[in-house]
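Database export, one record per block. Field names are fixed; values are copied verbatim from the stored entry.
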Amino acid sequence: MDDPQYISMELLTVSTTHAADLTLTPNSSASYNSSHETYNTFAYKIIIPVVWGLIIFIGAVGNIIVVFTMCSHGGRSMPRSTTNCYIINVALADLAFLSITVPITIAHYVSYNWVYGEIMCKFQNYIAYVSLLSTCLTLTAMTIDRYFAIVHPIRSLHSRTPRGAAIICIAIWLASGAACSPYLMVFGLELKNSQTVCMRTWSLGWEKAMTVMVVLVTYVVPLSVILVSYTFILRFLWQHRIGVRKELDHDSDSTESVIGVGTTIARRRKKVAKMVAVVVILFAITWLPIHLFNLCYALIPNFPQSQPLYDLKIFAHTLSYTSSCINPFVYTIMGDGFRKAFRESLCGCRGGSPSYHSRPSYPRRSGSTIETRLNGE
């Protein structure tokens, strides 16, 4: 969770907020002056803001499509799938980060003087932390949901409901907002080298402690829970390697209604589990470099300040930003149902009649429900 704003001019201030420690906070005039030369080069002045701008555009469009598609294939108030709820929640967190934090980061990167006021200084960094924590908690909840869907499908049938998932998502946002509220107080404006900068005002000791805490809460602990969940899922699938179960009465409908490994529904659930796993793996990969960089900076005395390390930090920040725009591509590539749902949503907006709208409502057991078609619930 690295600071989504302080990347612009300085290697010194490696903060610890969301996908972008893009707010480099000057700690000394020496560091500021040395980084200022790098900042004025063509690559850092033009190319990087353009790359970040493309990430904003691609991520915003992609996540809006995800939310639009998932909501279009649900009920009036919520999607008819627990996985859909969690996917929408991740997309909303990414949108919050891309639409609030990154644009100001780019503007602050191009013009280092902070001109957006103290309230925006606090709010932007607060949203960065909240959106990152919300994403981590949602991915964790989605993985646990996959565990119960595959390992305990019947026992969890009544507890794994869209309404329950929606309540969990709301609780995630409330908990994230409360947990990150201290950042509303520690960020403020200071005058450095005749320029106004937005930076944290706590001591070096607190900086080290919070860096470690942020990495634990937003990376190590969630991924550990996810890893344990998928270990149990894989063990269950390995122990139940059986073929498609014979129809009890040679009727295809009755075959799909049986909930077990090898059935159509079970196969769809495993496919969704693979998709969720890919999303989690990509999140882990894109966030690992910036977390490692922040930990090294916070914990290693006399951390070197060199051009290669500054380049590495820029790359790590950029990679962490891509985390907010790659999920729509995963859904499109791995989700046949998502592609079909998106096409049907477009037809509905154009006044067409998507085939599923004209069908009667199926009971939950049927593999033909919207819920199953989209996410293999």
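Remark 1: The longest helix spans residues 204-239.
Remark 2: The longest strand covers residues 187-192.
End of record.
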